[in-house]
Write a structure and sequence with these properties.
mainly beta, about 0% helix, about 120 residues, globular
Length: about 120
């Protein structure tokens, strides 16, 4: 089970960190996805079993995905937030090999999401 927390409202230019509690093992490939109203689900960051991270061009340099050492919590540190970052953010996981752990949205496991609003 994946449970997100830490969403909220922030002004443009501000920072926010969202977390995902991993209560059952759902795979070593993990990611943060977001859904902007009226748009398709988008993968913004992923991390594989070796800790290799990938970011979408829209968040590169501003967002950082990470895990705690026990891999029980996934984080997304979001800096320099923009109004266009407003979305529902989802934690996702699956048993993809490292070579296939990339920016994709077809993860088999996903949380219920946490809302992030930048205005």
């Amino acid at each position: 089970q994946l449970v997100e927390s830490g969403g909220g409202s922030v002004q443009p230019g501000g920072s926010l960190r969202v977390s995902c509690s991993v209560t059952t093992k759902n795979g070593a490939c993990m990611a943060w996805l977001r859904q902007i109203p009226g748009k398709q689900l988008e993968a913004v960051a992923s991390i594989d079993i070796d800790g290799i991270t990938k970011y979408s061009n829209s968040v590169k340099g501003r967002f950082t995905i990470s895990q705690d050492s026990a891999k029980k919590t996934l984080f997304l540190q979001m800096n320099s937030l923009k109004p266009e970052d407003t979305a529902m953010y989802y934690c996702a996981a699956d048993y993809f090999w490292a070579s296939r752990c990339r920016l994709r949205t077809d993860f088999g496991y996903r949380g219920r999401g946490t809302q992030v609003t930048v205005s």
